[in-house]
Design goal:
The complex is a heterodimer of chains A (about 180) and B (about 170). Helix content of chain A is about 85%, strand content about 0%. In chain A, helix 1 packs across helix 4 and helix 6 runs antiparallel to helix 7. Classes of the chains: A mainly alpha (about 180), B mainly alpha (about 170).
């Protein structure tokens, strides 16, 4: 497989990846396991799990894992460029006509509705993260402390992440030493 | 100078956001408050559009926000900056797969990041629900969408399509 054909596969994936998380695994399975037999299914699933536990955009992480596996460092770079190619130009083109579009009543109505759907999706994402975690006293404590510090002290997300992750690791470390 | 700030802010998003596309929103709200490159209304609109165009939502919003802040070069920069930490991490993790998953600090950090990310996203949801931003119609639509998915979450496009149709119908009634 050449870098060019790898790039083209990721361009295609970027173009049909609509709706996010739900379709990543089926699309990647169809492109890399079923059609081309480049990666075995178990490996793909482990990339999916890893992509979710690393920071950043899950679909991009997953593409880069596959790119790296197939073609090394440049494969990862090519995957990153390929997956963003179509979405990037879509947004740029759309933004240039957006002003004209949003004067239209129908578009305004649709965007209002989608705006509400986004809130529902955010709430559902929280619920999903909540269900996927082991909820013990430690989880609830960190959750409440972070939420309070965001709402009351208006910490920035990065400050909250650094503060509580460092605090959490320190706490667990001290407890492990005592045991 | 704006390019430097833009790069740094989006690099931080790529480095610190956990849990997929919508998890980048707390950072984007923060950027809007600190730099004023776009308003909160614009961000809501951008997120709506990013959800219905091809590609991962998190990347689409970055492209959009970069475009609003500093034109087309800004949008390329924001998109690249957001993915750069992932690029390094993926390469490192691919090399150290075994060691990585057993390390005490890595395991604890990941365990801690879950409740932290949950809380960050909850604070965004709370911010969006403020009554001065949303009216009664929006609250009813939101409640219906959530009711439809209480048993199991469906494809995001399902909610977006239904909500868009409802929005269009309402705009005709008015």
């Amino acid at each position: 497989m050449s870098l060019t054909s790898l790039f083209l596969i990721f361009v295609k994936i970027g173009a049909i990846l609509l709706g996010g998380g739900y379709v990543i695994l089926p699309i990647m399975t169809s492109e890399f396991v079923d059609k081309r037999n480049l990666i075995d299914n178990d490996e793909l699933i482990s990339y999916f799990a890893l992509a979710q536990s690393l920071p950043g955009i899950i679909a991009a992480n997953m593409s880069m894992f596959i790119g790296y596996k197939l073609k090394g460092k440049w494969g990862a770079v090519i995957a990153m460029l390929g997956i963003t190619f179509v979405p990037f130009w879509c947004i740029v083109l759309l933004a240039s006509v957006l002003g004209a579009l949003t004067d239209n009543g129908i578009v305004q109505g649709a965007l209002w509705g989608v705006g509400v759907a986004v809130i529902a999706l955010i709430i559902l994402t929280v619920r999903e993260m909540w269900q996927k975690s082991t909820r013990n006293a430690y989880f609830y404590t960190i959750f409440l402390l972070t939420l309070l510090s965001m709402v009351i002290f208006k910490l920035s997300p990065v400050q909250a992440i650094l503060l509580f992750t460092a605090g959490g690791v320190l706490y667990k470390r001290v407890r492990r030493c005592k045991e | 100078m704006i390019y430097l700030y833009l790069f740094w802010e989006f690099f931080k998003i790529g480095m610190f956001s956990f849990g997929g596309g919508y998890a980048t929103l707390p950072f984007l709200y923060h950027i809007s408050e600190v730099y004023g490159w776009y308003t909160l209304d614009e961000l809501t609109q951008m997120t709506a559009i990013a959800s219905i165009t091809p590609g991962p939502v998190g990347i689409n919003v970055a492209t959009f926000a970069g475009l609003k802040s500093a034109g087309i070069f800004g949008s390329a920069l924001a998109t690249a900056a957001e993915m750069l930490p992932s690029l390094f991490l993926v390469i490192i993790v691919s090399k150290l797969l075994k060691k990585f998953s057993d390390n005490f600090y890595v395991k604890t950090a990941i365990e801690t990041l879950k409740p932290v990310s949950c809380a960050l996203l909850t604070s965004v949801a709370l911010g969006l629900l403020k009554p001065e931003i949303r009216d009664v119609k929006a609250m009813i639509l939101l409640a219906l969408l959530l009711l439809m998915s209480w048993k199991s979450k469906r494809d995001p496009l399902f909610y977006i399509l239904i909500a868009a149709v409802v929005g269009i119908v309402i705009s005709f009634v008015h």
